Amino acid sequence: MKINFRLPDAGMLASAGLMAATLASCGERPEEDQRPNILFIMADDHANRTIGAYDGSIHETPNIDRLAEEGAVFTRSYCSNSICGPSRASILTGMHGHRNGVTGNGAPWDNSQFVFPRRLKGNGYTTALIGKWHLNSLPGNEFDYSKVLTGAGKQGFYYNPDFCINAGDTIQEMGFSTDIITDESVEWLEQHKEAENPFMLFVQFKAPHVPRMPHFRYLDRYRDDSIVEPPTLFDDYDTRRYAAEARMGVHHRPLPLLENHDPSNNIYFDRMTREELERYHSYRDPVTKEYRRLREAGKLQGKALKRWEYQQFIKDYLRVVDGIDDNVGRILDWLDQNRQLKENTVVIYASDQSYFTGEHGWAEKRFMYEEAMKMPFLIRWPGHIEPGSRIDAMIQNIDYAPTILDIAGVDSPEEVQGRSFKPVLEGDTPGDWRESVYYHYYDHGRHNVPRHEGVRTDRYKLIWYYTDDHYEFFDLEEDPHELRNVYGREEYSRQVDSLKRELERLREHYRVPEHVFHEPYVPFSGTGTRH
Ligand code: CA
């Protein structure tokens, strides 16, 4: 059992948990006018390390942090598969990828299955999604309104992006992705603030996903700063053969100078007006010249090159994050100005997964290691969550659907595999709350990372690279950076056996079919539009 901030004794806990479970199973709804609105803000690849509210953060995000100050931050929030599409599918369905069909970014998306926005809609909520979608068919009737980024392989553009509205027309909006998504969201809120029905609005930013192009107003920030390096930037990958073989290193090469830059070779720059391109280069060309000067002086070799690339990478990352934080501030300011609405609106900030921001020398996700497996999760719910809570209970993206439904007083169908953590939010963590999380990465070979599954408990982590039956085992208390695979060491044999049994139990609990361990992964190449 995990402890959170204001835990009563174990007996009270058990009865409170039982009460919450009973209410949820009856599907009782509060009075219509009391049901809270839900504002779900999600970024893409936003590392916990760059959110001020998290321990060990290297950055300040005063607006996102407001949610932690006025609500709660979850320190042990995890995804089930650390890539975009699968995490989003698990959020919408409350199920692992082998159940909802989205095991990889290439997998088809079938939204005729259970998705919680449709259930909310069927129970009187107005539902909308604005921003990045990324699944392989467009949003359907589960949303009253959708306006999703399209283009660049469903990733969307930073500058002058295209949007698809209600799975119909595609239009280009001039401006910056994060700003536009916020403009549209605030406009949608304005239009719905007087409505009788409660709403659920998903605000989903593309940032800070590659190719991390900051807005002009941030391009000069941190220019002369030296951002702190993670302690594992120069990991030697000893005892971890797949980490050694992965191809996801921090990599940053400067742009060509303006006079040599043909934007038709790059879809992201090709969308800029000539004026925008020139303005962008006014910030970047000095960096390119400095890079060339250092190279010619022989100062960018080995570790020095990696250090230089890390600084360029992380500065752009922080600049793009600053764009998110400022825009989250705009949304929270709007709620401040609409005080009555604010008091009855749950605000969540999450990311589809965290990200290696230089840890192990990487700029990616995928592996079951902590930096990728985590998801930032901050939530404010006035009157229900004690301000300033730090909650250590383990939650997973499959829990969001049942939790949000529970908050709305709507029950979840049997096929949902996650569990509502509403009692956890309210300080009553059930006595039988989860003590382990299941993880399964399927995109075999992408970035040279093999398929793997595993289990994480309070202290230990077991990873099984099953395509060639190789294990890794980490003692997270002794080795929080996961630098020493101690699988096979005699002193851990009891714990390894225990986690193998737990992995087996979770596989059965989540009904993972045997065939996924044997069938080759076949990338999906279609553009299915099933609704
Ligand atoms: Ca992502």
Task: Summarize the topology.
Layout: H1 10-26, E1 37-43, H2 62-70, E2 72-74, E3 77-78, H3 84-93, H4 97-100, H5 116-122, E4 126-131, E5 145-150, E6 162-165, E7 170-172, H6 177-192, E8 199-204, H7 241-245, H8 267-270, H9 274-296, H10 303-337, H11 339-343, E9 345-351, H12 370-373, E10 377-380, E11 389-391, E12 395-396, H13 400-407, H14 422-425, E13 436-441, E14 452-457, E15 460-465, E16 470-475, H15 493-509
Helix pairs in contact: 5-13, 6-10
Describe this structure in words.
This protein has 531 residues and is an alpha/beta fold. It folds into two domains: 36-214 and 317-434, Alkaline Phosphatase, subunit A (3-Layer(aba) Sandwich); 440-518, Arylsulfatase, C-terminal domain, CATH 3.30.1120. The protein is 32% helix and 15% strand. The protein is globular, with a radius of gyration of 23 Å. Residues 1-30 and 523-531 have low confidence and may be disordered. Bound molecules: calcium ion (CA). Calcium ion is lined by residues 44-45, 84, 209, 352-353. Residues 44-45, 84, 209, 352-353 line the site of calcium ion.
What keywords describe this structure?
Arylsulfatase, C-terminal domain, 15% strand, 15 helices, disordered C terminus, 531 residues, alpha/beta, Alkaline Phosphatase, subunit A, 10-stranded mixed beta sheet, 2 domains
Distance between the termini: 40 Å
| Total number of helices | 15
User: Biggest sheet: strands side by side, in what order?
Assistant: 7-6-5-4-8-1-9-10-2-11
The secondary-structure class comes to alpha/beta
CA radius of gyration: 23 Å
CATH class of the largest domain equals Alpha Beta
Backbone shape: globular
Which small-molecule species are bound to the chains here?
calcium ion
Return the average pLDDT rounded to an integer.
92
Q: At the third CATH level, what is the topology name of the largest domain?
A: Alkaline Phosphatase, subunit A
